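Q: What would this chain look like folded?
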Amino acid sequence: MMEVGSRRLVHYNLTAHPTADWTLQQFREAIPSDHSYQFLIHDCDSIFSRELDQQLNRDFKLKVLCTPVRAPTANAYCERLVGTVRRECLDFLIPLNERHLRKTLRSWVLTIIKDGHSSLGPGVLEKSSDSSLTGPRNHRHRLPRD
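A: My prediction, written as structure tokens:
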């Protein structure tokens, strides 16, 4: 999950079999109750069901905007993030399992936070006092220290 205005990575997770319920739980973990977000932009993937969109609108007061089919430039920020993760983190690696992939991704995110650079540009990942991944506000979900 990425905040478009600041290009900050707010939350990440992975699963082999994403569902609408799993996706909704990710939003619950990433978005604080006192958020100031107005919109949520996503593609037409099947994990974004109509019911999920309705719950996001009802529970989080977010207006959901779906990008057109086969229009990657309509969600260029997300496309850039996914491409950067592939190029910088996964191009030279064959994950053995979900645990291996999770550990590799976590290591990449922590390295970017520590070094403060990425091809994504400034502000994508920010350092806080405890070197954790921060969202739009100092939120309760943290990456463990290594």
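Helices lie at 20-30, 50-60, 76-90, 98-115.
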